[in-house]
């Protein structure tokens, strides 16, 4: 049941109790739907030993359902538990249908999330606005990117790349958005809608030639072919016209919960560092919100402050934040587990903020966590002098990886003090697999202390040689003891006879085996490099041969045995959205480009790398094969190895993969347990 027991802005609560009589095992009451759902998951997790995650669920309920001896009351220490990053929309959700969205929203509710963006379908509304202002379709088509890159179009980084958006795309996304906001609100979540940040298509300048707009510089490694977007001057009257028009249209379609998101300077240097200018920009964005909704609150990603600290000095940060009345903005301290901004901005100079765990970049695979930082960071932020913290958040760029870290962070959102992590992770393993097991408990405690416990400034970009363009200067540094992962691999395999039927166990065995193989690739790379630099051709042929002809194919077959590690699943989900063969080809090119070249010429090469069956063999494997054969040729001929020449040659291989039109299976093949055991017998050090 849901009780409106909340004064606006107070902490959320839930109650669990077992009423007298035999009819009901437990009654769950919450101050909102999301709070009640969190209470339900607490009961399932702590009293029934159940587990729900991206990798699967373990829902074997005890018979009869356990009754509670005493009532349990819980109050969240902060008002909000936030979820999603602007980039997740492209790295993870791009091709989702309603069934996948519904599952995610239900997981959000059970995880206690009560604040999240609803960004889907906004391009359809923008198209209506642009047409009403007088733009023609070709001008709009030249502005929107393809589906896999919309996150960066929305933040003013990119235009046109991998586009345009077909009419059917807009219709399908609108249909999804109606269902998404309805489902989120029915579960008591606050939806965050997009707002106008000031970026405009070039067509606006044709229709309104006297408008005051300036072209921003190129973003990342893109030149002005697909970047350099126009930014409206905050004083120009059209700023308010466009911003208010868009928001009114959006609210007319989807209603509102009065919280809006806009990022004007995401990884873009402002035109001036003058504090007065920065205040005018943030004030203009906020006024365009209140023009449509007088109750508007602005939710802003705080990534820009730590991304360009040389520009965002205290005076500039204060100016941008104080362009909005205190309390009418919420800042996401986006990378607080590694680079918290609240500490050097006096708690965002009085604006409320949410302590966020970013954790993942680009949706990369790779075991990683900063468990000590997230177990203590939120509590330290609450104790900070004059703290304005109003909640915790999960803001990964990509999901469906490292379930444990997200389960931990979600639980901490309801805690008043840190957890005892070794005993927590022991219970986690038991719930995840549905049975206590000494080997899996030991494996998880090893992973917890090593790969999941990066300390200091940790940036989880997978830089393993496996997923990077080969060179003689590759990074093989680890923040943990590699032998701990090998030992965890051995322990998990030893439990496979007992737990092999568990879907979550099979996923974890594949994931840990994949991590071990990733470490082995680094070892073989170092042998290859050493052999080349020592002019030892037999050793080079041996190490290169094992890597290219055995280890990488074996890893590919392992990944191909699990549905969540299939390239074909990603590509087929893109094709399924299409309504014609032409659209299917465009969407598949979007999907392939994002996980490889990320741009027409490898502009952000391998940023969104994934370890997927099909990709390892036909993309990473072919690169490594070319690298090894180039080194062998260099030793044979006596000609030095030139990285520039290799880069040109390997780019043809990379681009060839994007356009090869090969269909990859979307259904797994082979037995994950057998393949893992085979790899183990060959390669366990």
From TrEMBL:
<keyword id="KW-0325">Glycoprotein</keyword>
<dbReference type="InterPro" id="IPR024732">
    <property type="entry name" value="NAGLU_C"/>
</dbReference>
<feature type="domain" description="Alpha-N-acetylglucosaminidase tim-barrel">
    <location>
        <begin position="81"/>
        <end position="416"/>
    </location>
</feature>
<dbReference type="GO" id="GO:0004561">
    <property type="term" value="F:alpha-N-acetylglucosaminidase activity"/>
</dbReference>
<dbReference type="Pfam" id="PF05089">
    <property type="entry name" value="NAGLU"/>
</dbReference>
<dbReference type="Pfam" id="PF12971">
    <property type="entry name" value="NAGLU_N"/>
</dbReference>
<dbReference type="GO" id="GO:0048731">
    <property type="term" value="P:system development"/>
</dbReference>
<dbReference type="Pfam" id="PF12972">
    <property type="entry name" value="NAGLU_C"/>
</dbReference>
<dbReference type="InterPro" id="IPR029018">
    <property type="entry name" value="Hex-like_dom2"/>
</dbReference>
<feature type="domain" description="Alpha-N-acetylglucosaminidase C-terminal">
    <location>
        <begin position="424"/>
        <end position="682"/>
    </location>
</feature>
<comment type="similarity">
    <text>Belongs to the glycosyl hydrolase 89 family.</text>
</comment>
<protein>
    <recommendedName>
        <fullName>Alpha-N-acetylglucosaminidase</fullName>
        <ecNumber>3.2.1.50</ecNumber>
    </recommendedName>
</protein>
<dbReference type="InterPro" id="IPR007781">
    <property type="entry name" value="NAGLU"/>
</dbReference>
<feature type="domain" description="Alpha-N-acetylglucosaminidase N-terminal">
    <location>
        <begin position="7"/>
        <end position="66"/>
    </location>
</feature>
<dbReference type="InterPro" id="IPR024240">
    <property type="entry name" value="NAGLU_N"/>
</dbReference>
<keyword id="KW-0326">Glycosidase</keyword>
<keyword id="KW-0732">Signal</keyword>
<dbReference type="InterPro" id="IPR024733">
    <property type="entry name" value="NAGLU_tim-barrel"/>
</dbReference>
<keyword id="KW-0378">Hydrolase</keyword>
